[in-house]
Structures are given as structure tokens and as C-alpha cells.
Amino acid sequence: MKLWVDADACPGPVRDILLRASQRLRVPVVFVANKRLTLPRSELVSTVQVGAGLDVADQHIATSAQAGDLAVTQDIPLAALLVPKGVVVIDPRGELFSEENISERLSVRNFMQELRDSGVTTGGPSGFSAQDRQQFAAALDRELTRLLKARP
Known about the structure:
Belongs to the UPF0178 family. InterPro entries: UPF0178. It comes from Melittangium boletus DSM 14713. The protein has one domain (3-150): Rossmann fold (3-Layer(aba) Sandwich), CATH 3.40.50. The protein is 44% helix and 14% strand. The protein contains five helices and six strands; from the N terminus they run βαββαβαββαα. Helix 3 (76-82) runs antiparallel to helix 4.
């Protein structure tokens, strides 16, 4: 099992939680970004710097992640590629993407994109709060525990 992180827009507190979880549970974590990342040295932590371009990091994660891995992303189209592969996907605010909700989440995302493309101002997400950090940590712990118990 590996943890995959769509690191281009990953909040710092989420990165720190992932690094601690990786060390505590001895699970490798891979941060994928199109920019250079500075992370603590560890045999469990690696980075992949992909080329510039739209969705290049997403494509790397989508082709590399395997069933039983866990990915952290706020990119709904990436989640829609990973969920059918059996990858557990959570966003930085702790929401679990699943077979049951990914189609709806993708439809809403596409609708909002159409609104923005037509000139409607839709606003953005609220700032990352302490409650968001707690929800992410709880979701990560819950899903990692479940995945580790399921390993042979």
C-alpha cells in the first residue's frame, strides 16, 4: 500500500498529517507535483516532479496508483479515475470519494465549471480551518486502519 498525494494544492497541515501517519504506520507516501517540493528525508517519503501542464500530476497518479492504495486530492476528475480502480480517495477536508458519490460530485463539479465558463461568479472554497484539519486526520486514520486490516 502507498499513499499518493496530489501535492500541487495540498494544504501544509494535510502534508504534515500525512508525513506523521506515514512514519507512524510505516506506509510509503509519494507526493506528486509539477514544482519542486521540500520534504523531510525519510525512506518512506518520496516525491515525483512531473512536467508542467494541465493534469500532468493527475495522470501520473492515475496511472501509478493501484487498488488498495490511498490517494489525497481535491481534484474530482482525478478521484473519478481512481475510485473505480479500487483506490481509496479522500479530499484535504476529509471527504471520502466513493462509488456511491463520485458520479454526483463529478456532475456538480462540471456544472459549476460550465457556470464559471459562462461568466457566472461562483466563489471558491472557504479557508482551510482547524475543523477541516481534524476531519481530514480522522478520515485518514479511519481509512488507513481499514486498509491495513484488509492486507493479507
